Amino acid sequence: MRQKLLVFVPQEDGQPSLVSYSLYAYGVKKEKPVYTADHRFLQLSFDANCVVVLFYYFSGFERAYVVTSLNQAKALGKEKSFLPGVEGELFVLFTAIGHEFRALRRKVKLLTAYSEEGVFKLPLSFWFRLCALIQGRKAHKSNIMHLLHTTKEDLDFYERENDLCKKIPV
Known about the structure:
This protein is of the alpha+beta class. The protein has one domain (4-157). Helix content is 29%, strand content 28%. It contains 4 helices and 8 strands, in the order ββββββαββααα. It has helices spanning 70-74, 99-114, 124-135, 141-157; strands at residues 4-10, 21-26, 34-35, 41-47, 52-58, 61-69, 86-87, 90-96. The strands form 2 sheets. It has a 4-stranded antiparallel beta sheet with strand order 3-4-1-7, with no helix packed on it. It has a 4-stranded antiparallel beta sheet with strand order 2-5-6-8. Helix 3 runs antiparallel to helix 4 (141-157). Residues 163-170 have low confidence and may be disordered.
């Protein structure tokens, strides 16, 4: 089982970029970010057993993905996906453009302010429900915080560990 997911973020360095996008990634980082040998990319290592949120900015449009490793997807019977700048086999939980992109960006900012990396360790069920709230345009702060607290309470009540990572966030 692969322990980390590699994300390569393009770096400009004052020179014309060979890639046509910018990338921002949020998740549980495994190692300190390092530059590749040619200094064109910043390599980020994320925990492959947790959710990672990727925000792509292409010229003219934006797209976001909520992804996890293929190991989690095999239990659901899903096929692998490939994304630019990401090394490895992925399962895409949610794709967002337009209003959904901006809503996901705001909700990730809200959740990371609450717990910087802990929210990405929550079970897939939390992320499916969060994405459903965003799609239904019901992703108000009160609904998100209620979802977060009920998910954590359910995990504590049933004395279960998170189905993605070993530790349950604060």
